Amino acid sequence: MKLADLIKANHNIMLLLPRFGIPLGFGEKSVQDVCAAHNVPVDFMLLICNVYTFDDYLPDINQLAATNMQPLVPYLKESHRYYTGERLPHIEAHLHHIADRVEGKYGQILKQFYADFRREIEDHFKYEEQYDFPVLQSLQNGERRKRSQMSHSQRSHSGLVDKMNDLPQIVYKYLPGNVLPEETIELVFDILQLSADIQKHALIEDKILIPYVDWLERSMK
Amino acid sequence: MTPLVSVLIVEPSDIICEGLRSLLHESGRFNVLAPMHDTTSLEERLPAIRPDVLIVNPTLLSATPKQQLAAIATMRPSMPVFALVYQYVECSLLECFSHIIDVRASRSSLIGTINDALKSGSAKTVKVETDENYELSDRETDVLVLVAKGLSSKEIADKLSISVHTVNSHRKNITHKTGIKSVAGLAVYAMIHNLM
User: Fold this and answer.
1) d(CA A175, CA A170)
2) Domains parsed from chain B with CATH numbers
3) B6 close to B50: Cβ distance less than 8 angstroms
4) Does residue B126 have a pLDDT over 60?
5) What is the longest distance spanned by two Cα atoms in chain A?
6) By the 8 A CB rule, do B11 and B35 touch?
7) pLDDT per residue of chain A (221 residues) written in tens, 0 to 9
8) Which residues are within 8 A (CB) of B143 and not within 5 positions of it... i.e. 6 or more apart?
9) Do B189 and A174 count as a contact with CB atoms less than 8 A apart?
10) Interface of B with A (CB under 8 A)
11) Contact with chain B for residue A178, Cβ under 8 A
12) Is A72 exposed, middle or buried (0-12, 13-18, 19+ CB in 10 A)?
């Protein structure tokens, strides 16, 4: 299959390419060839593409065991960098631009909600990178490591997802509608896109990372 | 005499087209239009052809089937659109259709399915619920404010002298009515509506 056809089938896959280190301009090359050229295991790349394309797709443990999962942590970190380094600041700048033009308290309330949300999500990512990811990486290197708190970040995904659900609604339902309507609609679409992306990301952590770590631990016994 | 119901079939196979045409024709109720073999010019031609029923092979739809069906539904809102199924079709694709004709269907059930769809009127439409009330009740507002202040369900129950179960049921209704799920989001709702 051509990489271009994969993107034609689901354009969201384009967002994943930078996380794999795959640049645009791949012409008519196949997924296999592009992956080989950039040292991306094609089975892992397709696993992630499937998660992003099919709502009910979830690989079972046999499938994970047969997949080259070495790039999982680098992929997840690269996703974090994209969210915290690019999307969240972009949305914040846009949101402030609008909130500063809203009269009265509304703008300030919205900014505060966003600031709390952003801090929470950044703390969450930091925690995962500091405590959860090293557990997998040592297991992948054949070492065991204590993981007493690994389920911590898994638990709090639902809280983040709830806030991501609430943020666009607050913007389009409760903010006075006469301020920069076109830009507000654009902002809502940006938030919804990020929200869909992060929900898939959380799914990968909850339903792929965690079971995979469990399986590696069991198979080392 | 009731006017004939005009049916447009979009299907690449002549055998299937002709078989369907013949079955529908027999009943004397349908006028089967000249079939189309693909959907490329379907949207352009619909306004001129004005069929009452559209029967389409789902595999012929564009790469964005939902959008294409939505566009068709906007052009002819009262026209039921049937998926004509005789091979494997992705569930997600089939779900875009409100009606399905299985090629193995008997003569009578085929006619019955189409008649039922015509009777029930237009395909999937957004229904306007009129009986549902989205205003928060006074009690729900009390609970909302306490949730927004950061109290737990247990603390709210004690404060209002009601059971935790009742508090949780109020919380569920609040989320159903407002669409807001997080405590921080409910606090924003309360502040914006001058409840605190």
Assistant:
1) 7
2) 5-119 (3.40.50.2300), 138-192 (1.10.10.10)
3) yes
4) no
5) 63
6) yes
7) 999 999 999 999 999 999 999 999 999 999 999 999 999 999 999 999 999 998 878 899 999 999 999 999 999 999 999 999 999 999 999 999 999 999 878 999 999 999 999 999 999 999 999 988 999 999 998 887 766 555 555 556 888 889 999 999 999 998 888 889 999 999 999 999 999 999 999 999 988 999 999 999 888 87
8) B156, B160, B167, B170, B171, B174
9) yes
10) 63, 92, 179-182, 184-185, 188-189, 191-193
11) no
12) buried
Taking the C-alpha atoms of residue A112 and residue A105, their distance in angstroms, rounded to an integer, is 11
Sorted by where each begins, the domain ranges of chain A are 3-57, 72-220
Residues B165-191: b if buried by 16+ CB within 10 A, e if exposed: eebeebbebbbebbebbbbbbbbbbbb
Query: Is B184 in contact with A116 (Cβ distance < 8 A)?
Result: yes
Query: pTM value?
Result: 0.68
**Between residues B78 and A34, which one has the greater pLDDT?**
A34
In chain B, residues with a C-beta closer than 8 Å to the C-beta of A118 are none
- DSSP bridge partners of B8: B54
Rounded CA gap, B72 and B82, in Å?
12
